[in-house]
């Protein structure tokens, strides 16, 4: 029996495992890097061990330190979570060699299935359908193909290639990314199927020969080959197809002598054919939706199997209703999915029924790795939380999830929340006609929720009125008079904010009774600013009639053209986060008399995000053409290329490989030709 469990992971999955351990009476041990010292998973564990450093290679990827931590704390078992060393056969073997219980499949199985190349060859002999696969780029004769890392997953080391000319660089980039993420740069190529769906089957196997399928999950809504929305059951899978998929998954598990939780992933072609992609020898990020529809705690089943006990169910797990999960990530979909770093000031999701455990009835579940005040850095994955909706039908689950996301308060970092809501409400998604290219074909989902000019204007007005109320609340004299009131009307009160599409000036006038007598919002530079990015230039004479109902420092209620609207305002330093039924916007107040900023040298290329310079491919004096790759940055486990915007000569390179840079740092200076 397991008495004390060390979780060799961090964040959300560590908290998820700890929650089950508390329910069944197992003591817990956390490990943490320098940057994770204040992470919620550390506070929730019974014991915690520090891993000096921040880089994964110095902390969570150090199997020797993790085994030493288990021994030091008296843990008798290790759970790897997902990511990091979860599918590392050497680590699994080291845990067992240390006399500890490994919560996962045997090391030899991890090794076989951890190599996608070896797994495909083995399972093809067992009759599991496969796509054409190539190990040598020179042998690829048909396009498109997908370059994939043989080890690991999560979309890292993957590239779609549609012509022979692009194959060489794609293979080289995939190898670098795979080597950095998994320590193994081996890649292969397989035929790429357009308009395909990603469908996977959750299986559980015990040491007594029982292998139980838990139905399929649809994971086709992806960005950069990484899942962001998952659901079960799949709207494309019929009962007969489900039987075939589950039979293939069970056959794959039985072929390799599998024990524990695993997921067999398939590509579902438009023709209805399905092909094996890979087997994940661990718990999946999306396991929560399977827990909802089956009623089983999958972490508890993992621990039960690790203790050598048989699975408690006699056949395939039931499917009750429909569950959908979204991954809330710190990234900006509108700007090439650039990661967002900084302090998460607030994360509030309404109507959550449970956290980190199966729901007992339909509703919302939240699994989060962060808390208010958490610092989101560049060293780890961008996922902040998972929100899961379980309902009797798919339509109800999608509606509940979209509504809850819309009403959530997420302040401090840019997230993909608005995109997730627009996908869930999109007619094509609601029809179930989705595939892995959904985001490429439906660019309209990248628009912000706060999408009307009037909604942006009203949010700006609310921020200014809340700030005014805060000044009145803290005033030591004449606190009952509205801010800026004059006996004889003169100029309006004005505030300048840096909004989502550039700086805007907000003007308003209050009379002695506090009534709003005039207001306007206009671009600081109308020629350069397109308010809300909608293609509608801001004007000053068509504002909707607005009456002020009430204003406090944290809430403003307005009557907009006869409709009452409540806007919550959360001010942190000089940033006002305005949330309403229309959506959310962050407004940074600009100083009335800004300090002059040093001008950048003409031709300067600046870092679009904080990260590490992983490669520098040019030298001073070198001539480049538009589109040439100059260098790469690494942040949140992904490689971000920096290309030459135009032809020119590299005048200077202020950074070198390995350097850490902040957003806006000069990376190179090009003298244009």
TrEMBL record:
Domain ATP-grasp: 120-307
Protein's name in the database: Biotin carboxylase N-terminal domain-containing protein
Lineage: Bacteria, Bacillati, Actinomycetota, Actinomycetes, Micromonosporales
Annotated Gene3D superfamilies: 2.40.50.100, ATP-grasp fold, B domain (3.30.470.20)
Residue ranges of every copy of the Lipoyl-binding domain listed in the record: 595-671
Domain of life: Bacteria
Pfam families reported in the protein's UniProt record: Biotin_carb_C, Biotin_carb_N, Biotin_lipoyl, CPSase_L_D2
Swiss-Prot/TrEMBL cofactor(s): biotin
Keywords: ATP-binding, Biotin, Ligase, Nucleotide-binding
The keyword Ligase belongs to this UniProt entry's keyword annotation: yes
Biotin carboxylation domain: residues covered: 1-444
């Amino acid at each position: 029996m397991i008495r004390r469990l060390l979780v060799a992971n961090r964040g959300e999955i560590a908290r998820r495992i700890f929650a089950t351990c508390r329910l069944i009476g197992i003591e817990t041990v956390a490990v943490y890097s320098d940057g994770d010292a204040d992470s919620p998973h550390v506070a929730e564990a019974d014991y915690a061990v520090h891993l000096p450093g921040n880089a994964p290679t110095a902390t969570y990827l150090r199997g020797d330190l993790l085994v030493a931590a288990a021994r030091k704390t008296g843990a008798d078992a290790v759970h790897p979570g997902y990511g990091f060393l979860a599918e590392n056969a050497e680590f699994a073997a080291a845990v067992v060699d240390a006399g500890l219980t490994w919560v996962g499949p045997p090391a030899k199985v991890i090794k076989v299935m951890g190599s996608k190349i070896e797994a495909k060859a083995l399972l093809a002999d067992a009759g599991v359908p496969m796509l054409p696969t190539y190990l040598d780029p020179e042998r690829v004769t048909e396009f498109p193909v997908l370059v994939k890392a043989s080890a690991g997953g999560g979309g890292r080391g993957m590239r779609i290639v549609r012509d022979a000319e692009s194959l060489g660089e794609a293979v080289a980039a995939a190898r670098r990314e795979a080597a950095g993420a998994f320590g193994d740069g081996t890649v292969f190529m397989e035929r790429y199927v357009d308009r395909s769906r990603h469908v996977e089957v959750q299986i559980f196997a015990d040491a007594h020969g029982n292998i139980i399928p838990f139905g399929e999950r649809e994971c086709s809504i992806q960005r950069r080959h990484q899942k962001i929305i998952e659901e079960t059951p799949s709207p494309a899978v019929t009962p007969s197809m489900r039987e075939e998929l589950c039979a293939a998954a069970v056959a794959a598990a039985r072929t390799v002598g599998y024990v524990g939780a695993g997921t067999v992933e398939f590509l579902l072609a438009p023709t209805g054919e399905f092909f094996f992609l890979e087997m994940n020898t661990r718990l999946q990020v999306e396991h929560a939706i399977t827990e909802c529809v089956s009623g089983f705690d999958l972490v508890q089943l993992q621990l039960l199997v690790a203790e050598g006990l048989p699975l408690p169910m006699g056949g395939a797990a039931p499917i009750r209703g429909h569950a959908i999960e979204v991954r809330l990530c710190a990234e900006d979909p509108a700007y090439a999915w650039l990661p967002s770093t900084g302090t998460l000031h607030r994360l509030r999701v309404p109507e959550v029924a449970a956290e980190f455990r199966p729901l007992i009835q339909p509703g919302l579940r939240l699994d989060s790795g962060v808390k208010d005040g958490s610092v989101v850095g560049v060293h780890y994955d961008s996922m902040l939380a998972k929100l899961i909706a379980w309902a009797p039908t798919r339509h109800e689950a999608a509606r509940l999830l979209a509504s809850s996301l819309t009403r959530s308060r997420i302040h401090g970092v840019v997230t993909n929340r608005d995109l997730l809501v627009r996908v869930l409400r999109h007619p094509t998604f609601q029809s179930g006609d989705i595939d892995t290219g959904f985001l490429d074909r439906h660019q309209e989902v990248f628009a912000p929720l706060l999408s009307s000019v009037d909604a942006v204007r009203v949010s700006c007005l609310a921020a200014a009125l809340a700030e005014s109320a805060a000044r009145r609340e803290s005033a030591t004299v004449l606190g009952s008079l509205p801010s800026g009131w004059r006996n004889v009307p003169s100029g309006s009160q004005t505030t300048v904010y840096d909004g989502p599409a550039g700086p805007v000036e907000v003007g308003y006038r209050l009379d002695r009774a506090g009534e709003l007598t005039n207001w306007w919002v206009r671009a600081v530079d109308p020629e350069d600013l397109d308010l809300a990015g909608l293609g509608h230039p801001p004007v000053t004479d068509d504002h909707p009639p607005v009456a002020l109902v009430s204003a406090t420092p944290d809430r403003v209620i307005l009557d907009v053209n006869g409709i009452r609207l409540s806007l919550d305002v959360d001010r942190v330093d000089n940033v006002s986060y305005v949330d309403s039924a229309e959506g959310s916007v962050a407004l940074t107040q600009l100083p009335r008399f800004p300090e002059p900023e040093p001008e950048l040298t003409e031709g300067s290329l600046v870092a679009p995000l904080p990260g590490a310079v992983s490669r520098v491919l040019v030298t001073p004096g070198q001539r480049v053409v538009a589109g040439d790759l100059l260098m790469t940055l690494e942040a949140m486990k992904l490689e971000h290329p920096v290309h030459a915007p135009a032809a020119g000569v590299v005048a200077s390179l202020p950074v070198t490989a390995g350097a850490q840079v902040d957003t806006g740092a000069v990376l190179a200076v090009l003298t244009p030709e």
